[in-house]
Amino acid sequence: MIDQVCQADDRDYLLALLENEPVSNIFMLADIDLYGFDHDFQRIWRSPEGQAEAVYLLFYDNLSLWARSPGDIDRDFVLQIVSHYPVSCIMGKYDSVAPLHLLFPDLTMSRKNMCALHQPVKKVVSQDLTVAGPADVEAIFRFLSTFPQLRALYTSQQMIADRIDRQDGIHLILREGEEILAHGNTTASTDRAIMVGGIGAKSLADAEAITARLCQGIQAEDKIPCTLCTDQAFEELFKPLGFSIESQWGTLTAS
Q1: pLDDT band at 2, cuts 50/70/90?
Q2: Cβ-count burial of 110 within 10 angstroms (0-12 exposed, 13-18 middle, 19+ buried)?
Q3: Which residue has the higher pLDDT, 167 or 121?
Q4: CATH code of residue 135
Q5: pLDDT tens, 49-104?
Q6: Whose CA is closest to 201, among 185, 189, 215?
Q7: What is the average pLDDT value for the chain, to the nearest integer?
Q8: Backbone conformation region of residue 5, classed left if phi is above 0, alpha if psi is from -120 to 50, else beta
Q9: Distance between CA 58 and CA 45 in Å, rounded?
């Protein structure tokens, strides 16, 4: 099965499976839409016909999983993938990923909430927010580096510069003079949902303003705002804005 990589004629079948859960499957759907089946850095496999339905997407060293039910993940096949390719992260719904921890005890298991906003955002934004441009890159990188939870995600100034240059999502900032007080951006995007991330702020009110404005822009496109967050962030930031939890998200990562 490791040699039976999906091709372009599998696209409709894969989308029919994954689009039933447009929020939980946003990463897979976005990768299929952006990169398709002709790049060496992305490989996709699906279960053979007649077997339990599951999809495995390897993007560089990141392995995403989907299954109709948690028990449908083929553990032996996951072991095959990991033995053939360098994998530093395995992610998907928590119930599908957590059992794999027994196979990879050296990886670190974590859980977050996959959340979505299915109603108008509960926030009136009064702050003067601006869309970041190339001149803001250095300040954004310095600002995000002050948040431990964001430092590992935004590892280089050039990555932020490239995202802004390619218009790969929107970066919003709140400034006070030359100082950035808050930042947020959109990431993975499909024709039904857009992921919100990179939320860093010096106050909860400013975090709410950045998040709310991003969500308003997403909803103006008739799409669903979604995010991954901890229990604390959900209770303090996202739940008051109207978000609800869609699923539990699990990741196995190299330390």
Answers
A1: low
A2: middle
A3: 121
A4: 3.40.630.30
A5: 767 789 999 999 999 999 998 889 999 999 999 999 999 999 999 999 999 999 99
A6: 185
A7: 92
A8: beta
A9: 9
Cβ atoms < 10 Å from Cβ of 19: 13
Number of domains in the chain: 2
Print the domain residue range for 167.
129-247
Q: pTM of the prediction?
A: 0.91
Closest CA to 173 of 215, 204, 214, 132: 132
Ramachandran category for residue 199: left, alpha or beta (phi over 0 → left; psi -120 to 50 → alpha): beta
| Same structural domain, 242 and 134 | yes
**Are 13 and 99 part of one and the same domain?**
yes
